Amino acid sequence: MKTEKKTALITGANKGIGKAIAIKLLKKGIRVIGTSTTQYGVKIINKYLKKNGFGVVLDLKDTNSITEKIKEIYKHNYSIDILVNNAGIKSDKLLVHMNNTDWEDIIKINLISIFYTSKAVIRSMIKKKEGRIITINSIIGYTGNKGQTNYSAAKSGLIGFHKSLALEVASKGITVNMVAPGLIQTDFIKDLNAFQYKKHLSNIPMKRLGSVEEIADAVMFLSSNQASYITGQTLHVNGGMYM
Ligand SMILES: NC(=O)c1ccc[n+]([C@@H]2O[C@H](COP(=O)([O-])OP(=O)(O)OC[C@H]3O[C@@H](n4cnc5c(N)ncnc54)[C@H](OP(=O)(O)O)[C@@H]3O)[C@@H](O)[C@H]2O)c1
Asked: With the CA atoms of 134, 137, 139 and 141 taken in that order, what torsion angle do they form, in degrees rounded to the nearest 10?
């Protein structure tokens, strides 16, 4: 798929990995529709997009609103060629201390919402006979982690979803892949204390955290024509932490 004059929908584009992906795609001439849960986030998105797209308020926890919001985008004559399911949250606790909300919110935002976003774009991609769905998974979806039964269940669930969807649309010119980051410097890991930070660092063979640009590069590659024969895959970007 040629990426010129295409439109990408990126969830969670106001900061962190999502913002870096948006800026990377923008530089390649792709129009971006970015989401945030707040008006303030939308303002940030609109500022860096400089009219090469726009920001939309979207709360993935409100699954009913996802279809409606994406329908609105199509009504305004935007057709989504690249869907980047980036937004995600964590709420870490050992299972003995985890409450229903910790469990349900993480599953809803990190896994259930992907059904709604993907379903909302897939028909038009099938019609056009091209499209890209790229989801940000996590190393934890593949390894599991203490204190993250909710997060790892959601991220592991994405693996089956993406492999199955990749099979369903492989003959329609649509590829469905994931990027699985290791530890990346964003607000997502700001609650790590010095001890945890040091411990994590010692487990990374490259002895450094990844940057948001390194994840964005992987997403850009999977969006590009160079990745046209890759589907149902996970691109691991983790400094050697998991192979
Ligand atoms: N950073 C890492 O080390 C790391 C490692 C592995 C995987 N990941 C994955 O990478 C993705 C991005 O993480 P990040 O590091 O960039 O985190 P981040 O800086 O905390 O950003 C999270 C993004 O998700 C959005 N978001 C949160 N709750 C949402 C909701 N209910 N509905 C819609 N959007 C929501 C946020 O939007 P608002 O700010 O507007 O709420 C924000 O844009 C996530 O899927 C995460 O699981 C991150």
From this structure: -130
CA–CA gap between residue 237 and residue 180 (Å, rounded) = 6
**Could you tell me the mean pLDDT of each successive run of 10 residues in the chain, 243 residues long?**
82 98 97 98 98 96 96 94 98 98 98 98 98 98 97 98 98 98 95 88 96 98 98 98 97
Domains and CATH numbers, the chain: 7-237 (3.40.50.720)
- Residue 198 burial (CB < 10 Å; 0-12/13-18/19+)? exposed
Query: Which residue reads 């530089």 in tokens?
Result: 27
Return the pLDDT at 196: 86
Pocket of ligand 1 (CB under 6 A): 11-12, 14-18, 36-38, 41, 58-61, 86-89, 109, 136, 138, 181, 183-184, 186-189
CA of 34 to the centre of ligand 1 (A): 13
User: What residues contact 170, with CB distance under 8 A and at least 6 apart?
Assistant: 231, 232
Total residues found in the chain within this entry: 243
Per the CB < 8 A criterion, the answer to whether 115 and 160 are in contact is no
Identity of the amino acid at 215: I
User: CB of 29 within 8 A of CB of 52?
Assistant: no
Q: What is the DSSP string of 199-211?
A: HHHHT-TTSSPBP
